[in-house]
Design goal:
Layout lengths: L1 H22 L4 H37 L1 H4 L5 H16 L1 H5 L1
Helix pairs in contact: 1-2, 2-4
C-alpha cells in the first residue's frame, strides 16, 4: 500500500536526520545542508501521511463505537477524507519529494 510506504519513508527520514545530528561535529556545514534537505522532503510527505492517519482514526472510531456509528454518520466525513487523501497523493508534493 502506498500509505504504508509513505509511513516507512517518513520513519527512515527521521532516522537519517538523527544520524546526521550524531555525526554533526565532524562536518557541521555538510550536516546542516543535508538535514535541511531531508527536513524539506519530510514536510512534503507530511500532508499525505496526515490524510491517511485521519482516515485510520475515523475507522478506529467506527470500530470502537459501532452503535453510535451504525447510522452512517461518519460516512460523509470518511468520504471527504478519502477524497482529500487522493488529491494529496496525486498532487505535486509527492512528486517533488
Amino acid at each position: 500500500k502506498p500509505e504504508q510506504g509513505l509511513h516507512k519513508c517518513r520513519k527512515r527520514l527521521k532516522s537519517v536526520r538523527a544520524l546526521l545530528r550524531l555525526v554533526r561535529s565532524g562536518d557541521e556545514p555538510f550536516c546542516q545542508t543535508e538535514n535541511e534537505c531531508y527536513k524539506q522532503v519530510s514536510a512534503l510527505l507530511a500532508g499525505p501521511r496526515e490524510a491517511t492517519a485521519l482516515i485510520e482514526t475515523v475507522d478506529r472510531l467506527a470500530d470502537a463505537f459501532p452503535e453510535q456509528s451504525a447510522g452512517g454518520g461518519l460516512d460523509p466525513v470518511r468520504e471527504r477524507l478519502v477524497l482529500r487523501q487522493h488529491e494529496l497523493h496525486a498532487g505535486p508534493g509527492l512528486d517533488a519529494a
